Amino acid sequence: MELSGKRMYSLLKKLNFERLSTFEGEKRGAEIIAEEIKSIGLEPKIETFMAPRYEIKKAKFEVTSPFKCEYEVSGYGFSGNAAKDGIEADFYYLESFDEMCLAGAKGKIVFVAGGLNVENFKKLVKSGALAFVATSGTWLDKKSETDLEERMLRPIHTDEGVIPGLCMRMTDGIKLVNSCPKTVKFTLEQEEGEAESQNVICEIPGTKYPEEVIVYTSHYDSVIFSHGMFDNASGTVNNLELVRYFAKNLPQRTMRFIFTGSEERGLLGSKAYVADHKDELENIRLCINVDMTGPILGYDTALVMADMAVCHAMDFYKKEIGFAMEVKQDIYSSDAIPFADNGIPGINFFRRAAADSTKIHCRYDIISTVTAKSLARTANFILSFVKKLDNAVYFPIDRKVPEEIVEKVDKYLRKNPQK
Questions:
Q1: End-to-end distance of the chain based on CA atoms, in angstroms?
Q2: Where are the alpha helices (DSSP H) in 277-352?
Q3: What is the pLDDT of residue 416?
Q4: E-assigned strands of 170-225?
Q5: How buried is residue 99: exposed, middle or buried, by Cβ count under 10 Å (0-12/13-18/19+)?
Q6: Residue 417 has what pLDDT?
Q7: Cα–Cα separations (whole angstroms), residue 259 to 78, 123, 215, 324, 404
Q8: Chain CA centroid to CA 195, Å
Q9: pTM over 0.70
Q10: Residue 198 dihedral angles phi and psi, to the nearest 5°
C-alpha cells in the first residue's frame, strides 16, 4: 500500500476550522479523527481529561486624564479580574525589568512593550503594580489584516501571585505612550475554570513483539483565530495515514497512535496520557512525534531525544535513500516531551518552513500553504524509517534518554526554576 498525499490533503480539508482547547471545535476535531479511524476498521478510544478554560466577558482600557481616549484590548486569560467597576490609577511605562524601573510600578497600571515571560511576570507582581497592559504584533501591522492576540497565563506564571492583564496592539501602544497619559482605567472580567479536552487513541497489536510499543503522537488542537493547517492538522493527517498503512500491513511491534488535545495549552493531552497510563509506560520503546509538515517551501527535520547513535543511524539512512533532511539531537516543544520526562526516547519529525513562507498561531495558518505532495514526502520517509525499526530482530534504539536531553527537558518543564 502506498501512502496517499491526496487522501491526507482531503482529510486536512475536513479539519479546516478552529479547534481551540476545551471548546466545541476541538471536540469536533476529535470526532472527525475517531470517524476516520473507524473507517479504517479500527476502534478508537476517546479519553477525556480536564484542561483550563477561561472566557473573557469584558476587557476595556481607557485614558481618563489629561484627556479621554479608549483603546481596543483583549484580556489575559487566568489573570484574574479587576475591581467590579474597573481600576483607575496612574499610568506607568515600564521601560525595563531592572530594579530602577520596577521601583516606579507600585500602585500603578503598568504598560510593557511586548509579552511577559515567567520571570518578568513574577517581578511585576512583586513590584506592587495594580495591573498591566502588554502589546501584540509589530508597528507594521494593519488592523484589517491581523488579529489582536488573546493570551493566557499558566500556573508557572501565577504560583507567586497574580495581577490582571490586558493586551493591545503594538501600534496602539506606541500611540498610548507617546500621548503621555496621567491616569487610566483598566477593566477586566472573566470566568476561569476547567472543561473537558480529549485524546483519541487507537492501537494495532504487533504480530511478533506485541510487548514492544512504538507510540506516535500528533496534536490536533489549534489556537484562537487559527485553523492550524500547518500546526498541526498536518501532523494529524500524517499519523492517520500511518494508521491506515499499519492496519493493512500488520506490524511486528505494537503501534499505538495518540492524537492529543490541548497541546497548545502546554502539552496537556500528552501529559494527561502519561499520567493516566503509568503502568503501561515501561513497554513503550520510542515516541515518534509529528508536528507541522507539508509546507511548500521548507526543509525536513528530525530532532532526536535519544542517544547520538540514533542520529548517526538516521543520518546514514537518509543518505542511503537520498532524502535531504536535518538531523540533530535536541528537544522539541511538543508532545514527545512528557514521554522523555518518563525515560522514553523520542524523535520529532517536522518540516521547517522557509522564512516568511507560512505562519502559525494566527489567521494565516491556512490550507493553501500546505500541499499533498509535501505531506506525502515527509510521511513516506517516516514510514520507511519506522519499518526499519519494526522489522529489526532486536529493537535498535535503547530505552534511555541521554543526560543532556534530560537536563533540557527539566529546564523546559521548569523543574528547577532556581537554577
A1: 51
A2: 308-321, 337-340
A3: 75
A4: 183-204, 209-219
A5: exposed
A6: 59
A7: 26, 37, 11, 27, 28
A8: 18
A9: yes
A10: -150, 145
- Max alpha carbon distance in the chain (Å)? 78
Sign of the C-alpha dihedral, residues 387, 391, 396, 397?
Answer: positive
Q: Which domains does the chain have, with CATH numbers?
A: 5-52+195-412 (3.40.630.10), 67-181 (3.50.30.30)
Closest CA to 250 of 44, 390, 380, 377: 390
What tens digit of pLDDT does each residue of 347-357 get?
999 999 999 89
Which residue, 253, 258, 274, 145, is CA-closest to 204?
A: 253
The residue type of 108 is: K
- From the centroid of its chain, how far is CA 265? 7
> What is the spatial distance between Cα 387 and Cα 207, in angstroms, rounded to a whole number?
14
Q: Of 193, 162, 198, 184, whose CA–CA distance to 47 is shortest?
A: 198
**What cell does 48 get?**
477525556
**Strand blocks (E) in 80-206:** 87-93, 109-111, 131-136, 165-169, 183-204
Would you state the pLDDT for residue 390? 98
Please list the residues that pair with 173 across neighbouring strands. none
Non-local CB neighbours of 92 within 8 Å, separated by 6+ positions: 104, 105, 108, 109, 110, 111, 129
Residues of the chain scoring pLDDT < 70: 1, 417-419
For residue 83, what pLDDT is reported? 87
Three-class SS state of 53: strand
Rounded to a whole number of angstroms, the CA Rg of the chain reads 23
Task: Check residue 103 and report its DSSP letter.
Answer: T
